Amino acid sequence: MQYLLLNGKTAVRSLQRNVLRATLTTLGIVIGIAAVIAMMEIGAGSSAAIQSTIANMGSNVLMIMPGTVTLGGVSMGSGSGLNLTTDDATAISRDSASVRYVAPFVRARVQVLYNGNNYVPNQIYGTTPAYLQVEDWDMASGRCFTSAEVRSAAKVCVLGQTTVNQLFGTDSPIGKEVYMRSVPLEVIGVLKVKGANMLGMDQDDILLLPWTTLKYRVIGSTFSENNQSAADEQSTITTDQLYPEAAETDDLYPADSETAAETADFPVITRFDNVNGIMVSAWSASDIDPAIDQITQLLRSRHQLTANDENDFTIRNMTEITDTLAATTNTMTNLLLGVALISLIVGGVGIMNIMLVSVTERTKEIGLRMAVGAAGRDVLLQFLFEAVLLCMLGGALGIGLGMGGSWLISALLHWPTQVSVPAIIAAVVVAVSVGLVFGYYPAWKASKLDPIQALRYE
Amino acid sequence: MNSEQDIIRLEKLSKTYLLGEVELRVLKDITLNVRRGEMVALMGASGSGKTTLMNILGCLDQPTSGRYWLDGEEISRLSSNQRAELRSKKIGFVFQSFNLLPKTSALDNVLMPLTYSHRFVSEREAKNIATRLLQKVGLADRMDHYPSQLSGGQQQRVAIARSLVNSPVILFADEPTGNLDSHTSLEVLEMFGHLNRDEGITIVLVTHDANVAKYTQRTIRIRDGEIIDDLPSAQIMAAVGVEGGA
Lengths: 458, 246
Prior knowledge:
Number of helices of chain B: 8
Number of domains of chain A: 2
CATH superfamily of one domain in chain B: P-loop containing nucleotide triphosphate hydrolases
Oligomer: heterodimer
Number of helices of chain A: 15
Structural class of chain A: alpha+beta
Helix content of chain A: 40-55%
CATH class of one domain in chain B: Alpha Beta
Number of strands of chain A: 14
Number of strands of chain B: 10
Helix content of chain B: 25-40%
């Protein structure tokens, strides 16, 4: 131990004898480590920022679809079941702790008319106001429909920019009336432009309206041709036939939280309220898996499935997005590691170069040390100590410089940065390894000198 | 032949260098004894083989053939690490060009060999030893000076203090006055004499200069790798015509 201490002291003294050169020698390591630390901190900060941005783009959105129904051996395709209801949606938002917003939706493909123009928006969603929260979407002008308007099946709608362009051109659509299957709908708002999604689908090619309006006024009217009135409640009959027990439940979605008087005024007691799907957003990306578990359990018990039954619904999440995210982060980290490795190898070669010069220059000193009793091992250790010490000092300086640099960048450019402890540990380990690897050859060369030749060296 | 009294005993020691195809016999069957406490001059012209002999005596080099006992130990076949340990324990060197570490204080220069001696002393004790030695060579007030701030004579005295720090049994001085003027040479030689008389350290002085050799008790003259005479110094001085003596 004391022997190592003495060697360490000798190394420090040797470095002290030529401070300027030691500093210049270790500059490669300083810059290398500083770059790594700064990059890691900025990279970690950016990565965290990107993650939260992508999360806002909807990576924590889940889509619950009804199961597949097969009629007479013919599968009706995914989502053809009629077993997902607005009650399910209500239950999910009430009972699933990991879920933030819930929006059931009904889909249709209907022609929309305005003043002689006609257009079929790619997406026509009958839903609730929560849809905009799930999708993290804002209004550009006007307002979204309210829960009250959903309950009363108000004849209002909200348009995406593409739909506006197709129907209105450059005119403002707010307050105008469009027709869907001869049902007049007042345009009360326009959505902000969102652009294409990851699959290249135009997300602004959309029309939103209360799901009750779409289901009972627009589509419902076409199912029973004898009822041209938009306000008819004829589908009630079908509901009662299909779900007799539904008549007893009193917390049906449209009547939810209404006063007794209003409930009495509202003529519909039971509706056929199945939906095409339910969109759910979790609190954060890490809440997705618990949310899936909670929803699965809840829906299984609500649909009275036994342990042997398969799920009569499917839950889809945006794994593609989260996988892409993970891949991006990995690529970035690997890239940084590659750059770090190259810069540290360059720094290491610099150390080796100067150590070789130092050994040649101090041949006489090595001879002297050997003459007074230093064995080859002592000389080897002394020069190895010097190289490692240089690299460690360089590493420490580099860590300080890197952290200072990233602090400066975050202060001046407002880039997000994050202190990366693994990077600091890695930097120290790498600095010491570089010293050992690149310091060994010069040290070995010094230890193999012949003391007589070395003493005679001028 | 009392081997107990002989600190150095050589038996038919030879050293041969191979220069390409040519064998160069630098030392030819040297047989020699040096008694404990003697002060001996090894004298010869350059190329006579005296430096090679000193390197072998100082355990820096190995003989090609023959045997060598130092302080009762046969050491002609030791490995380089074993020789390093032996140098650390028993041998002190003083060189012509002082060989002090630059930008290192006199005190630290004296302390340096302790790094490699395997008798571990505390830092404080080590400092005490070094301080005492520097006082002995008359440099108590120069302990923190760098070599570049000292005169040649002072530097050589630091080197002498350094050679003594591991309490060697024998001191080898290779042309210790070669880089000094006559006045400081005298000082240094008197210091060697003092160390030999008062401390009982065996000293081997290697020189080409009869004026240096006359400070010793015995002079061994070498020419072409062979001992040509081995006599009390006074007799040699008379023979080569140098006046005075120790």
